[in-house]
Amino acid sequence: MKKIKSILALSFIALTLFSCNKEEETTQSGQESLKVTPEVLNKISSLSLNNSDVQVIKHTKLDGSIEDAFLVEGDIIITQDQLNKMDLHGGITTEQYRTTNLVSAPRTIKVVGLSGTGTTALTTNMRAGLQAAINRYNNLGLSINFTLTFSSSTSGANIVVRRQTGSAGGVAGFPSGGAPYNSVTLYSGLDSYSTGVNAHVSAHEIGHCIGLRHTDWFSRQSCGQNSNEGTAGVGAIQIPGTPSGYDATSYMRACFSSSETGAFNANDITALNYLY
Asked: pTM (2 decimals)?
């Protein structure tokens, strides 16, 4: 989720609102192999993603290698290969928005939270938040369910959750080939917030991994903004039983507050049951 950028202009908001990610540093233009070209922006727009602030970042993969990737909407990582393969088929389902790249179901998704003494190991607070998030997903009885192990080994993992130095928040990506995105990065600043906030951010980023979009695409109101991300001309099909306007407590809002509990609201539950 995109961080609040104008501290002075939004100082009254910054006291209570925090984004779900710390944006990584962009690479120098002379060094990056990826370019934010008009073609890239058009493809991102065609997927109903916000193309107003697309960046090229150095993304650390699970094996420790570095790859160039696009950072979209502040907390969505998309590689060039993934972007080439993504497409819309029949529009986007809303009000809890999703991509058309969903996880094949039924299936069990193995989540590993990194443990140990290294810099990527989750703190006790992060681990408690991640466990709460996984429990909330599993308590819904969806056609996908999650197992959670805390380990320094990522063998067999479908999603690896790790820590990285940065401000409060996290990043993830979208599913590909019916499988969830394979990693969630939680930034170290989260450790200074409650277990509820950690649960909220973990659940939100896992939501992206299984194909969910931000719910306030039409306003980014949760970030104190008034910015319509647009529907790229493909429209939006509302999920029955969910509101069409701003949902102030959805866990998939673009930005979150310091008072989050990590709980899903009734509309989140309706949407998750509709998709899975």
From this structure: 0.76
